[in-house]
Amino acid sequence: MTDAERDLGRLLPSGDPSTVADLLPPGRLVGPRQDREDAPPVLWLSDGPAPFGLWEELHRAHPRSGLWPLLLAPLREGDEEFRPWATGELSTESASEPDWYDPAALLRNGWEYSTTVDSDGEPLDPDEASELGRSVAPFLDGWPGTAPAADRTGDPDGAARALARELLAFNANLRIGLVAAAGGAEALTACGWSGPVNHEDDIAKVSAVLLDWERRYGTRVVQVGFAELELSVAAPPVDEPTALRIAAEHLAFCPDNIFQGAGTLTAYAPGLIGAPQWSFWWD
After folding, report:
1. Is the dihedral of CA 12, 13, 15, 21 positive or negative?
2. Domain boundaries along the sequence of the chain
3. How many CB atoms sit inside 10 A of residue 72's CB?
4. Beta strand residue intervals within the chain, DSSP E
């Protein structure tokens, strides 16, 4: 048994690590050190940059290996510590399970919280409420509900592989991570990622929404950073009304995308029409 097979066997004792072990460059296991120093590993991390095409091979092997591949980015370019991954700034202690939650209810709650209180949790004053009204138009009357599922979802796996190639072509310093999980949404909970902690401290709720988007729009988690997320999208919106509804979901899921980005839903939504990638960033 190789070192890689032994390591992967610790991540997924019931799996067959031999299906991917021979594909891997040098790497090591990482445990959630925020829980405790000797916590069991939750992630296999390559020591160096991901070889081009490896994510795709690992993705194809996932049904047999049970290990979901992630392209991993550090806190900032040139970060020699490669936070949070190599430093184990991960925690699985407080997470619940994605299937405990109704994603539509989570998005409604996210919308209501993001549109009724300020960053300190205090009710908006009249000037803040007026400014917010401009940001969330045309949904001044409140949460519009989740957008309908796409009629056709295209090829989610093909879209994910295409995005992985594009991301690696743009940033050759990304590393490969492997997590024992049914898919990318569940992988975030399984490895204890805490990127959205300033907005949502239970990553299972984030995973629950991502699972819903997988079903409705054929999304896949491809790249994860310190507090960033890159999804492939096989069935993006094709018209402005649907794009606006999805923009409202994005605000509920990640308010910084709008409030620290485009500024308004009407400015943000056109960029979603036909877009094969959704990007999120939490302050």
Report:
1. positive
2. 3-97+170-229, 104-151+235-274
3. 23
4. 27-30, 43-46, 67-72, 175-180, 219-224, 228-233, 277-281
Blockwise average pLDDT, block size 10, the chain, 283 residues? 81 77 94 82 96 96 94 90 96 87 97 76 64 80 92 89 96 96 96 93 96 97 98 96 97 94 94 97 93
Token pair 């790249």 in the structure block, residue: 223
Tokens of 184: 């990318």
Instruction: Render the burial of 167-181: b for 16+ CB within 10 Å, e for the rest.
Output: bbeeeeebbbbbbbb
Q: Is the full-model pTM beyond 0.90?
A: yes
In the sheet with 27-30, reading across from the earlier edge strand, the strands are 27-30, 43-46, 175-180, 67-72, 219-224, 228-233, 277-281
In the structure encoding, which two tokens stand for residue 170, read together? 């743009």
